[in-house]
Design goal:
Elements lengths: L2 H8 L7 E5 L3 H13 L3 E6 L2 H10 L3 E4 L5 H8 L6 E4 L5 H9 L11 E3 L9
Parallel strand pairs: 1-2, 1-4, 2-3
Antiparallel strand pairs: 4-5
Helix pairs in contact: 1-2, 4-5
């Protein structure tokens, strides 16, 4: 499943939802496109490379966070005090799922690469 497929088909992001995406590589950028197509009101992308974050803006990210210089969970909490409706991990590092759950309104922790949604309708492991 691609990034856009995860956003549109697995998580069923809807107009007005808030989305956080960890990782702005090829799959993450496609997730940004999917969130934009779905009508997400806020699309926050987190990465360590400024070049990728610039690309994320071009793909439709409303906010970007450079996690090499900023604590991503705190930055997301500043932008979305109630947490995000959907959190996507396209980094694949063991530490990110726990950080992702800290950004999610549902506070669920899923092992591995995951999709987290406020509605708890679905979760998918890639």
């Amino acid at each position: 499943m691609t990034g856009a497929g995860s956003v549109l088909n697995t998580a069923n992001v809807s107009a007005g939802d808030t989305v956080v995406i960890f990782g702005a590589g090829g799959v993450g950028l496609n997730a940004v496109s999917g969130a934009r197509i779905a009508g997400a009101s806020r699309i926050i992308v987190i990465d360590i490379q400024a070049k990728r974050l610039d690309e994320a803006k071009r793909f439709g990210a409303t906010d970007v966070i450079d996690s090499a210089t900023t604590k991503p969970v705190e930055a997301v909490r500043d932008l979305l005090p109630g947490g995000a409706d959907h959190v996507f991990d396209f980094v694949g590092l063991k530490v990110w799922p726990s950080r992702g759950s800290q950004c999610s309104a549902s506070r669920r922790t899923l092992p591995g690469r995951s999709v987290e949604t406020r509605s708890r309708r679905q979760s998918e492991y890639f």
